[in-house]
Structure formats: C-alpha cells, structure tokens
Amino acid sequence: MGRLTDKTALVTGSSRGIGRAIARRLADEGALVAVHYSTGEDAARHTVELIERDGGRAFTVRAELGVPGDVHELFLGVEQGLKERTGETALDILVNNAGITTPAGVQPEDVTAEDLDRLFAVNAQAPFLIVQRALGLLRENGRIINISSGLTRFASPDQAAYAMTKAAVEQISLHFARHLAPRGITVNSVAPGITNNGSALFDIPEAVEQMAQFSAFKRVGEAVDVADVVTFLASPDARWVTGAFIDASGGTLLG
Ligand code: NDP
Predict the structure, then answer these.
(1) Residue 163 has what pLDDT?
(2) Residues 82, 54: contact at Cβ < 8 Å?
C-alpha cells in the first residue's frame, strides 16, 4: 500500500516538466491527482495516461493562472473532478508548481513593469490565492508544497525578476505554516536547481554539460529528483517539517 492511499492532490502545472513528475510520484503512492494545465491539454492528458498506465488515478483541470477568475476556474474543475471520483471535495495535498521565468535573454535593465506584473501574477499571486481558496477543502494533516528556486539563494542577474517572485512564494510557506499548524497542515518550499524539464535546451549536450557544472554532483537534475523530495514532504513521514526551505538543487547552493 502506498504512503498516500486515499489522499487527494492538486499539482498545478503538471502537464509537463517537474509538475508531471510530481503528479506521477504522488499517484504512485496512491493519491488521486488533479493534473492542472493551461495550454497543454494533450500533454496533461498524457500525464493522466502515464499515471493510469502505472495503475494510478488522475484527472485533468484547465485554468490559466495570472488572469482574473483564474482561481475560481481552477477550483471549479478540481471540486468537480474530486466529487465525481470520491463523492466529496476534500483535498489533502496542494503543490503550487506552475511557474514562468523571465523571458530568455532579457537583462535586468530591460525588465518592464508589465513583465513584473505578469511574473508576480503567475508565480506569486496565484499560489497565494490558491492556498487561500484551498483552505476550505484541505483536511486535517494536509500538505502544501510551494515550488521555489535555488535562485533565491544563488545570484543570476538575468533572472532577478523571476527570483523576486520565488522569494515571495517562500514567504507563503513561512507564514501559512504558522497559520495552519493548529490543523496539522504543513507548508514547505522546495527549491530545485537546474532541472531537466524536457524542453529543447536539454537536448543540447554542450548546454547540458555546462549547466551540470552548477551542481556539486556535476549533473543537471531530473524532474523525478525534485518529485521525490515533494513526495516525502507530502507523506506522513514529513509531519514534523513545516515552514522549511528544502534545497533540492543537487548541491548547487554549496558554492
Ligand atoms: P515547465 O515550463 O516545464 O512547465 C510549466 C508548467 O506550468 C506547465 O504545466 C504549464 O502549463 C504551467 N503553466 C505555466 N504558466 C502557466 C499559467 N499562466 N497558468 C497555468 N499554468 C501555467 O516548468 P518546469 O517543470 O521547468 O518548472 C516547474 C516549477 O519549478 C516552476 O515553478 C519553476 O519556476 C520551478 N523551477 C524550475 C527549474 C528548472 O530548472 N526546470 C529550476 C528551479 C525552479 P501548460 O504547458 O499547460 O500551459
């Protein structure tokens, strides 16, 4: 029996990349997973297919985050999907994973107020409002995991704006951890380093070799490296960990 049997989970941005790996690992452990996506409907369906092929349970939910009405739309789908499958809308695990980065090649000097608005809307405001909205659904001893980035600790000037939004996400974990402790709900941040999310960049051996040098282990992370850490935090084994920043960067932050 898996560690998450009879649990329900929502993983935002699980149509691909790290989110897909998280959804698959949670489902492996027995959770029923809401696979959220924005534009990648086929990819989200494929995540569900992969989960079902492995004997798990999942369903897709579409909502573009960072636009008016986003959280309402997300939870309409989540509640409907849970109700159809479990007869209720209770949620045990929320993973705020969906995120966007500063557009490639944009120097800090060139980031506009519109770029900042968009980054904050998707990466910081949406996770905050999703946590807020999930509070009514989360059962006792629930789990909230917010995906941050090693870039809140490791300087990379062209990602300054993105890193600001991830610093904000970490604050959700700190403050809600205190707020939700009376209900046994833990809230933690996981910070990946450079992680193969299946994008074209990771098909270029020279680029991968260069990126690998940042990790103490001299390789890029695989999505499942991060997913395993998230799955631990989602499990009963992590009941005594809350408000924490967990480095899942393969030692990138060791310098
Ligand atoms: P990907 O770019 O591979 O996937 C992003 C996911 O988020 C997709 O499922 C996408 O959905 C969804 N998404 C993006 N924008 C929106 C939006 N506006 N509304 C709703 N959904 C959206 O991401 P990664 O797997 O690389 O990253 C996952 C998380 O990990 C992010 O928070 C990222 O910041 C963080 N991270 C990643 C690192 C890495 O090296 N990969 C390093 C450090 C942190 P769809 O495609 O359906 O539109």
Answers:
(1) 98
(2) no
